[in-house]
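Project outcomes to date are best conveyed with an example. Our students and postdoctoral researchers have been running inverse folding experiments weekly, and each run begins with a structure described purely in tokens. The record below, which covers 400 residues, was selected by the lab manager from last quarter's runs and is presented without edits.
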């Protein structure tokens, strides 16, 4: 089938098959892997990059900027919220390099491994509480959301009692229907909240990321404003993403029950299964967006300085040239870890060791403790989040 020469890239085009990318884009990958698409306003266009190899070439190239304030940057929605300067994924090098350096140590695999006993404890406690109640329950409310929220609170040193406050505001950052005003308000409120917490840590430091950020502020390696921005970003990114992965991962596994034994077979099999779930679900699904700072040739196409580029990583992760039979969930897939679900290049997810640890603990433990787990609603009736930058389900009724 020949695609429309300038197809409209409708962000949040509904996923007609809930766990697959919209089929129109897969056809585009075959016929015109890098093509001009019209964005939401019907006037501006950007390059849509659909292949895995080209996606990595763009995301790993220093000539592409993440700064959305520049003309030509492909906006995702009509009322594009003015992005606060500290929204970390939007900061370019060299400022980005300095900011990221203040946190690198906190997310090293060794450091996160030390957190595993705490994650196991939190998982066990949540599952104990859930198992005591009679199903059906909402798995998002009882397990998928509290687990990463409790863990990020523990890591950062944020009181979990405040979870409703930060969860509500974090939701605005991924809601593509949110207005600029709502975005700015949520960012401002979380910023004020974390500024107060950082001040409290200065008086009574703990063994946590926020206390160590305060030390860096006092040593002059990071400004108080940057430290607060980073703290907001970590608090938001640290729970919203993993929560959706736990819930959607559960859905995918329940749709493929024959593969659950592989998830439970041992640490190596579990780790591989988690990589495949990350690839298959690719929850960050609105496309990573960039703008060319100079002319660059990618996949034989010249992208001119000033052009916008959209890289939907859920398409790259279904590229048949890299992943055989890509639309099939295969928990034993040997090269699953080649996925770009955490992005690629300088903005590649900083929290990925944490996300991996949480998923490697939460998903097998859920199915071990509740072997009879099943959906309490037909798949089509689940509330899939079509209008958020991070895909998932807002509720997941289950029983066992
Ligand atoms: C399964 C869960 C997660 C997924 C799928 C995910 C995905 C991503 C993606 C795709 C990016 C790149 C954005 C871009 O290039 O524009 C990113 C960046 C980032 N993520 Fe995650 N993430 C997850 C969990 C986490 C967690 C638990 C944290 C911990 C706090 C975290 C912190 C960050 C940070 C700080 C960045 C910005 C890095 C930078 O710009 O240098 N993420 N994530």
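After processing, the design step wrote out the following sequence:
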């Amino acid at each position: 089938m020949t695609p429309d020469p300038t197809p409209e890239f409708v962000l949040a085009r509904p996923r007609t098959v809930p766990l697959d990318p919209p089929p129109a884009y897969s056809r585009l990958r075959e016929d015109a892997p890098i093509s001009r698409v019209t964005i939401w306003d019907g006037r501006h266009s950007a390059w849509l990059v659909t292949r895995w190899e080209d996606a990595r070439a763009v995301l790993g190239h220093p000539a592409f900027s993440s700064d959305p304030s520049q003309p030509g940057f492909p906006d995702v929605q009509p009322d594009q919220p003015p992005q606060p300067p500290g929204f970390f994924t939007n900061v370019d090098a060299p400022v980005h390099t300095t900011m990221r350096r203040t946190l690198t140590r906190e997310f090293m695999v060794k450091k996160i491994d030390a957190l595993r006993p705490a994650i196991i404890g939190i998982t066990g406690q949540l599952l104990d509480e859930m198992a005591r109640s009679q199903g059906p329950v909402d798995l998002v409310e009882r397990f998928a959301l509290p687990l990463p929220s409790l863990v990020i609170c523990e890591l950062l040193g944020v009181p979990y009692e405040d979870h409703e406050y930060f969860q509500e505001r974090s939701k605005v950052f991924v809601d593509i229907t949110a207005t600029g005003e709502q975005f700015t308000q949520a960012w401002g409120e979380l910023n004020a909240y974390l500024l107060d917490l950082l001040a409290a840590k200065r008086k009574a430091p703990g063994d946590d990321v926020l206390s160590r950020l305060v030390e860096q502020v006092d040593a002059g390696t990071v400004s108080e404003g940057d430290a607060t921005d980073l703290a907001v970003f970590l608090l938001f990114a640290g729970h919203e993403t993993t929560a959706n992965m736990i819930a959607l991962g559960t859905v995918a596994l329940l749709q493929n029950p024959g593969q659950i034994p592989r998830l439970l077979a041992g640490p190596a099999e579990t780790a591989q299964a988690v990589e495949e779930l990350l690839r298959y679900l690719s929850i960050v699904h609105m496309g990573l967006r960039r703008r060319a700072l100079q002319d660059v040739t990618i996949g034989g196409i010249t992208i001119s300085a000033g052009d916008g580029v959209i890289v939907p990583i859920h398409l790259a992760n279904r590229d048949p040239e890299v992943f055989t039979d890509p639309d099939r969930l295969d928990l034993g897939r040997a090269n699953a870890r080649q996925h770009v679900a955490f992005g690629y290049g300088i903005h590649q997810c900083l929290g990925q060791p944490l996300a991996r640890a949480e998923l490697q603990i939460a998903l097998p433990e859920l199915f071990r403790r509740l072997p009879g787990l099943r959906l309490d609603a037909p798949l089509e009736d689940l509330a899939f989040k079509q209008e958020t930058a991070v895909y998932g389900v807002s509720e997941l009724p289950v029983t066992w």
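The chain is about 45% helix and 10% strand. Residues 66, 88-89, 100, 233-234, 237-238, 241-242, 245, 283-284, 288, 341-343, 347, 349-351, 354-355 surround protoporphyrin IX containing FE (CB under 6 Å). The training component of this project remains on track.
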